[in-house]
Amino acid sequence: MQKHFYDVIIIGGSYAGLSAAMVLGRSLRDVLVIDSGEPCNRQTPHSHNFLTQDGKTPAEISALARQQVEQYETVQFLNGLASKGRKVEGGFEMDTRDGEAVRAKKLMFATGVKDLMPDIKGFSECWGISVIHCPYCHGYENRSKLTGIMTKGEHATHFVPLIFNLSKDVVFFTQGKHDVDPDFLKKMKQKGIEIIESSISEIVHQDGYMREVILKAGKKVKLDALYAPVPFEQSTDIPASLGCELTEQGLLKVDMLNATTVPGVYACGDSIIQFRAVAQAVSSGNIAGAALNRELAMEAF
Ligand SMILES: Cc1cc2nc3c(=O)[nH]c(=O)nc-3n(C[C@H](O)[C@H](O)[C@H](O)COP(=O)(O)OP(=O)(O)OC[C@H]3O[C@@H](n4cnc5c(N)ncnc54)[C@H](O)[C@@H]3O)c2cc1C
Question: The whole model's pTM is what?
Answer without folding.
Answer: 0.96
